[in-house]
Specification:
Layout: H1 2-15, H2 23-53, H3 64-73, E1 76-81, E2 83-85, E3 90-92, E4 97-105, E5 112-116, H4 119-127, E6 139-143, E7 158-162, E8 170-176, E9 185-188, E10 191-194, H5 211-225, H6 229-246
Parallel strand pairs: 5-6
Antiparallel strand pairs: 1-8, 2-3, 3-7, 4-5, 4-8, 6-7, 9-10
Amino acid sequence: MINEVRNTVMAVLNKDNNGYVTPEEFNLFARQAQLEIFEEYFYDYSRSVVLRNARKHNSGYGNIPKQTAEVIDTFTLTSVGLTYDAPTTSFTLPTDWYTINTVFYTPGTSSIEVEQVRQSKIHKLVKSNLTAPNTSYPAYYITGASLTSATPATPGNSIKVYPTSIIADIDVEYVRYPKSPKWTYNTVGGSPVFNQAAADYQDFELPDSDQSTLVLKILQLAGINIREPEVVQYAMNEETIEDQKEG
């Protein structure tokens, strides 16, 4: 899909000699556009659930929450084991995590769900004999602990599990970010020619139905970059029309 999107973007830009976007610039715009659409899925899902609960959504092909959830599910990874980092006494999260669904403690053949709590609350729980987490009812919070104590802390890249005697057997189910798209090419006669066989090629991970939205968002970014307000306005108007149709 990425080549079709780029061809469309370039065709719009070249129509009135508005300017040229390099492959490197296109890849940056493509990444940003995909991230924006990806994050919109979660807002769309929340809104559609509200409408469904208000009986304003149909079943079958009109079941918008189900359709949106199916897209999000394609980015969901299950049973991913986390590595324990002894210097920080925390478990390192995958670098591509967007949101955590569930954390499990899996000693042996059993699987226990680990409850998420706020960092400010965990200390109160630990001090109480009645509510202190244990291996049967463990708890965790997301922390900014670094991979090693010698490096600066990175916000939200690990979790702290209680009781602290748990140093293994932690798995996570999470929604990952989409991979960064990359339009790869060979230079032929001074011009870039699409090369899908390149080792670092990466297509968009969004459904084909999002192709037009990708084009419009990339055009907005490209128009700003080449300082062509007509391109930006065109893309914004078309995106508004699409939003009205979906609404």
